[in-house]
Design goal:
Layout lengths: L30 H4 L9 E2 L14 E2 L27 E3 L2 E3 L2 E2 L2 E2 L26 H5 L10 H9 L6 H12 L6 H13 L2 H5 L1 H35 L8 H10 L1 H36 L7 H21 L2 H27 L4 H5 L7 H8 L9 H8 L19 H30 L22 H4 L22 H5 L3 H32 L20 H17 L2 H29 L13 H18 L1 H21 L8 H18 L12 E3 L8 H11 L5 E8 L2 H21 L5 E7 L2 H11 L9 E5 L9 H16 L3 E6 L7 H33 L1 H14 L3 H18 L2 H7 L9 E6 L7 H10 L7 E8 L5 H14 L6 E5 L8 H11 L11 H10 L6 H6 L1 H17 L5 E5 L10 H12 L5 E5 L11
Helix pairs in contact: 5-11, 5-15, 5-18, 7-14, 7-15, 7-20, 7-21, 8-9, 8-18, 8-20, 9-10, 9-18, 9-19, 9-20, 9-22, 10-18, 10-19, 11-15, 11-18, 13-15, 18-19, 20-21, 20-22, 20-23, 21-22, 26-27, 27-38, 28-29, 28-30, 34-38, 37-38
Length: 1099
Amino acid sequence: MSLNNSSNIFLDSVPSNTNRFQVNVINENHESSAAANDDTDPPHYEETSFGDEAQKRLRISFRPGNQECYDNFLQSGDTAKTDASFHAYDSHTKTYYLQTFGHNTMDAVPKIEYYRNTGSVSGPKANRPSLLEIHEQLAKNVVVAPSSADRVANGDGIPGDEQAENKEDDQAGVVKFGWVKGVLVRCMLNIWGVMLFIRLSWIVGEAGIGLGVIIIGLAVTVTGITGLSTSAIATNGYVRGGGAYYLISRSLGPEFGGSIGLIFAFANAVAVAMYVVGFAETVVDLLKESDSMMVDPTNDIRIIGSITVVILLGISVAGMEWEAKAQVILLVILLIAIANFFIGTVIPSNNEKKSRGFFNYQASIFAENFGPRFTKGEGFFSVFAIFFPAATGILAGANISGDLEDPQDAIPRGTMLAIFITTVAYLGVAICVGACVVRDATGNVNDTIISGMNCNGSAACGLGYDFSRCRHEPCQYGLMNNFQVMSMVSGFGPLITAGIFSATLSSALASLVSAPKVFQALCKDNIYKALQFFAKGYGKNNEPLRGYILTFLIAMAFILIAELNTIAPIISNFFLASYALINFSCFHASYAKSPGWRPAYGIYNMWVSLFGAVLCCAVMFVINWWAAVITYVIEFFLYIYVTYKKPEVNWGSSTQALSYVSALDNALELTTVEDHVKNFRPQCIVLTGGPMTRPALLDITHAFTKNSGLCICCEVFVGPRKLCVKEMNSGMGKKQAWLIKNKIKAFYAAVAADCFRDGVRSLLQASGLGRMKPNTLVIGYKKNWRKAPLTEIENYVGIIHDAFDFEIGVVIVRISQGFDISQVLQVQEELERLEQERLALEATIKDNECQEGSGGIRALFKKAGKLNITKTTPKNDGSINTIQSMHVGEFNQKLVEASTQFKKKQEKGTIDVWWLFDDGGLTLLIPYILTLRKKWKDCKLRIYVGGKINRIEEEKIAMASLLSKFRIKFADIHIIGDINIKPNKESWKVFEEMIEPYRLHESCKDLTTAEKLKRETPWKITDAELEAVKEKSYRQVRLNELLQEHSRAANLIVLSLPVARKGSISDLLYMAWLEILTKNLPPVLLVRGNHKNVLTFYS
């Protein structure tokens, strides 16, 4: 790279927004700054300062005139030997020098852009330099795009990206609400329902002022704790749309979130019908009073309700802005109605109101109404069940979290303030109405007291009215009998009616908005794939129009049914179930002690949240026990469904955090207990390489480790360390994902090493955790050992020696076709790639044809451009046929079939166990575990052991006794008495021909030549070695003959692995033993335990 070293290379400019993380971009435009600076001093570098001179720090200035000082500053991209040396990055004729703290470095300072998710709506995501980029030596000619230079150095996105994005948002007119209009107003409207105006007075009459305040306090305790938990969860990270569903699903995971999200959305949809019917009933009552009925009360409710819900739908579909304006208007009406009631309590009562029980504030009335007077079988819990729905609605603001400017600030502030204000209003109304109105009144102005009448402590009697006949016959007025007490007390009655309209319509409108928003968020997460249709949003605010229509249809259906008294308890329980899970989410996240649980809202306690969850569950049964049971059944069914489907999402839930904590605690607990033989289980390291390249080896190992032992698929990357580490890191996730996708309960581990044996040695020593450490090494038989380089054979036999050195058992698996199917996978990947290209080509051609038919000349130009891009694809299409023909001719079908043989259910047959040497019992335990598996359950065990010819029966009885004590079922026992006789000549000749290329034949040469050959080829089999172990060689050949005779038809052979004594048996001779031992047989497992007991007959 060359630089134009003309005067004034460096620009000394201080941006207006300098800070301690300033990064200067140095321009190549030298002439433009030469005239601006006439100083001829040599260049100097200002020191980094962290003092008060923040505006002058981190600058580099150039004094022109002594340009030679810079000639050696950059030489082919090399940096000068200074503390502030720089790497040059040339890109598109501009040079960028990356500076942090006044020095050149690719290390980036902390920026929020690094921590955003991809596709974040709040701004672009930037990628910080990787550790590899910082750690490795920097290349001399690194090209950095101009648009990303700042990003690399400072963590910024493309300059102006965030501003541009925000500008686009502003232009599009996206509506976002603050905490008042978005949360406070909605929560207050939802909490202040019809119950405030037409049921609260009755509750005070039944329970009295004292218990009435306790009922309100208990309800507020539930909602208050839930509000605190909601605030904590909402401030533990950015909150998107979805309300309660989003909070629960991101805390407890998709299983809980998906189950509660569906019923919560449904509950809001049905709640629309409930509130609209409440509004319609009030209108019908007014029509009755004016004798203006349309049909009959039931059908009038249906007609008015249907018209109302259509109007509400129109307001919602018009956009969130219109809906928010309507909510504000309704809140104003509601506040005026409440104020109207309090004003009415101080306006002197007239005779008509007194006859109906209203006497303004009276201490006698307060005292009389303070205690309870339950009637008609009512009690504390039944009255509480009637009141509690009035306290719900605290999630109205959270449900539109996606439409809030700052959900983390708005949800806690708006929700908690709404709970406080509405609680004060409920308590104020309850106490005031209890202090002003008597429980029973006749409504007759002539029911005054007679002189000399004994009042018996009656407050009304003391105030001049005799309502004693209400004890014997029903009365129509008073707290106990008249639901319109607030209208009577208020200064202007019609305003209370307007308040009832406002309460019902606002709640209905809030539910009509909440249900589609929550449902859309649920569908976007694709937890229920059949509901994906409703995930689509429209317009600037991504409005869920499809969800609005669905909510409208559900509400209309329940309005037409007009029987909501039955469904109302279930809906209340649905809301309570949501509250319970929110509280439990807060507790669970705190209990899991995840470092990621850092809520900004600190006014919460995990045990208080747990108490809130239990309280919600208790209230569910108090309100209606059968509705609670139905709620739990539905939620449990949906939980099981989502768990079974296993949606492919990962939200870092507290469930995952607690699983980790539990696993860690259990692993630590295991280390405190000594191993016991009864709890032994094979814990295997399997040298599969990539798990998909040797599936048969993994399958047979998984067959005896699944649900009982540890299985680690291991791969060793051999070669240049940098390349190996890069390849290893890039494939870790993919290979573990393959195991999960194929439902193989195993881990994947990999190491980079200078040679294969060193890598395996590292795995043998370092794999596992605590007591969960491998005790068995499983490897495939090296089928190509006669053609392989000597180093590969040395490594292969060496890892067997290493395993024995570390007291780890060894299992060598051999199948006729071998295990490695990597070439088959490469062919399949190529075919898939070509098929994708073919489909893409067809789609492009189809698109071009459509445009040609409808787009005229413009479409013709587009077609020409697209065809130019894809003009080489017909050649690829032709190559498909070529590769397919190669596939037919060269594809090894037998290898593919062999790779899946252990996935299939094994036919009825036997597993032949040749337990020739006692290795602690591993040779017997592995086949026993196999027979417990569903795929191997039709295979019976046949046991073969060596013995003396003259004691066959005795040894058979002894072995049967041992197996019975081990409680291992077997089909038959065979005592082989002729193992140690010589094999026949043909078999021995095969063995000799096998080892002939590797023999030294030193006995046929003179001593000097023999010694020279030994030095040059120490790996060859000497005559002395062969003679010393001749009996062992005979045994291996003879065993193959016996295996051919007895076990040729077995489904699987498990055979004791011969051990090669270190320094005595050469690698090639040992491989020849394994070859001749397992030649021309069904699948064979050569097993050798670590000679420690793995079986016991003690209890």
